[in-house]
Model the fold of this input.
Amino acid sequence: MPHRTLILGLESSCDDTAAAVVLNGRHILSNIISSQNDLHHRFGGIVPEIASRRHLEMINPVIDEALAKGGVTFGELEGIAVSHGPGLVGSLLVGVATAKALSFALDLPLIAVNHIEGHIYANFLTGAAIIFPILCLVVSGGHTSLIYMRDHGELSVIGRTRDDAAGEVFDKVARALSLGFPGGPAIEKLAQCGDPSAFSFPRALMSEEGKLDFSFSGLKTAVLNFMRREKEKGSVKMEDLAAAFQEAVVDVLVEKTTLALRQYPARQLLLAGGVAANSELRRRMRRRMVEEGVEFISPPPQLCTDNGAMIGAAGYYALRRGRLASPTLNAVSTLALESV
Done:
């Protein structure tokens, strides 16, 4: 393996078209993201057909920009890494087809990366020394998972969402509050001016069976029903509602993670996924980890959302282990993390 290993990471699992050049799995030379937020804003959510068409338009320009900004040519690359699931199948296919074409044309290894695995590896780009075993909480629009990782390629999903993921509930509540899309940042901003103790919403910590799993559908229903009742009675302060809702989500995430650490001891907790950019979650989780004597690591907000750098980082470690994909690689919308 060359000392200087450059990986091109491609990510198109949802609505962001992203490409990045990563050096030795730890250093970002470039990280280009073309966002589609403006396209989907008026629909209040992602429209898959629109997303895949925009990926087709943007994937080549984004790759060109990533190479140019990184000061790298195609001839210097050692591998092409791509997210092949889970996600929107039409969006994933754009990235997978592009990666396969580049791999064939350049005679480079093709590396398939699970999108959730990529989020975990965003933490390897922070400069922190990662010491196994680790526990990682991945919180995004489609996933809320607790993952115990013994080493590269050795991981177990020990907790997952039973229904709505945390990020999905943020989006749905934000839509009901007419805050637009994406909902997480809008609710966080509104909550900063609110009183989280103004209202009390349920926290689903569940029974012994599946006690490390998550459930947010009850919270979502409680908030939406409360809003309907309050509209009939009169006005309600939206800032307080947002703060109380956010507090309920964060409470569950922190408590479940703490419970997991007591069952699966680890020296470090990694936070990942789009919701990991939430400042209240980061503040509360950091405080609790200090109490538990566990080091808390989280990527900067720009690496929490979908990006090519995290795919490039995960791809580097997969390449080191010889985990390569065949030319028949396909997109898998429901790809399980256990497939890693």
In short: The domain at 132-298 is CATH 3.30.420.40 (Nucleotidyltransferase; domain 5). The two ends are 22 Å apart (CA to CA). Residues 6 and 23 are 5 Å apart (CA to CA).
